[in-house]
Fold Dihydrofolate synthase/folylpolyglutamate synthase.
Amino acid sequence: MTDSSLPKTLDAWLARLEASHPTGIDLGLDRVSAVARRMGLMDAPIAERVITVAGTNGKGSTVAMLEAFSMAHGLSVACYTSPHLLRYNERLRLDGIEAEDALLMAGFKAVEQARVASPSISLTYFEVGTLGALWAIAQRRPQMAILEVGLGGRLDAVNIIDADVAVVTTVAQDHAAFLGTDINVIGREKAGIMRTQRPVVLGSDSLPPSVAEHARDIGALVHALGSDFNHDADGAGWKWQGKSASGQHMVLDALPDPKFPRDNAAAALQAFALGGVALEADNCRRALADVRLNGRMQWRGQWCLDVGHNPHAASWVAGQLGASDAHVGRTLCLLGMLGDKDAEGVIDALSPAIDAWLPVSLEGERARRAADLAEYLAERGLEVMHCADDPGSGADWLETRLEPTDRVLVTGSFLTVSAILDRWQQASSDDENVSRERDEIRNA
């Protein structure tokens, strides 16, 4: 393999990776582990501390809060997450900054050189991306690396790295084609990120029994919500109670609302403490006040974007909308979902908070048509305002019909949310170009 045969841009690399493996998802660690060994990724820790986060919902917000805690405490930190909303670069952040194209491409090159060595090994898009990100992290060896599992846990490419602290946020049904529908089986898959004699944070009090059973079977050190750590209301804020890495009881009070589920915030604090960091109360408060995550209850004017795509996530979103007692207008939902998701369950979970619906079609092999969503809605006697061919045209239709007191929830898929975010970004770019042209004319 020569450099001249390799792609010259990030977009070209990504196009090559998408076409390089016969299936998009191919669970198992044999292939990815073999390439990782060739790359030297198994020879030494990629960071001083590694926290791996698995779960059906809450992974992204937990990772975001762990990153915020790390930066507030002055630690160098790397985060690997998936999927992305607008740019692939979002998947790897170094000290809070998205990775540059050159670094991602260097990672892909390192993977490719190891992959094609005899015998050649085929890898999926996600596997190459994961190995490339781990290589980039290892080059810097930060004080903290936070890794988000893509799907499941036990057989996910992220799991080739031994976590110093594992976190399981929630377990619910999702990705049934790969993980099945038995909640205990799903729980056991997510529990696969645990390691013997290393701490694991169980971030929900309703996890299936298989999660704690697996922890006990392998001798992981369990820290469970409701028994080993907890959170309570504290005036206008909230209070966290947990344990340090040495087992010392800890309390942090007057914590601000991070606008994410409190269970996730409490689990992130517990995992961070178990990473051997001495928690500073003011640093934790500042991190929680400042943390943001695109696509999670993200507001812009009358519009709210949330990537929730299963009933568990939708139920939390509905609760957040229902908690807005001051709202007096309609709540409308622009809903776009993939064909392998539980649309009926999501609609049932959201319906108490929604007055009218606008289903939209998505593109791709797994796409679901707006007409199918409309049929589910009609069967439940729910109002369908309009059907649109795509999220953008749906948003265009809605914008001309919104009342000042209306609000719009955009949800159901990363694809739905990313389409609206891209639309906003393009509009902002166009506005900047117009402003720049006016300035040039004025100054001519």
User: Anything to note?
Assistant: The longest helix spans residues 414-443. The domain at 298-428 is CATH 3.90.190.20 (Protein-Tyrosine Phosphatase; Chain A).
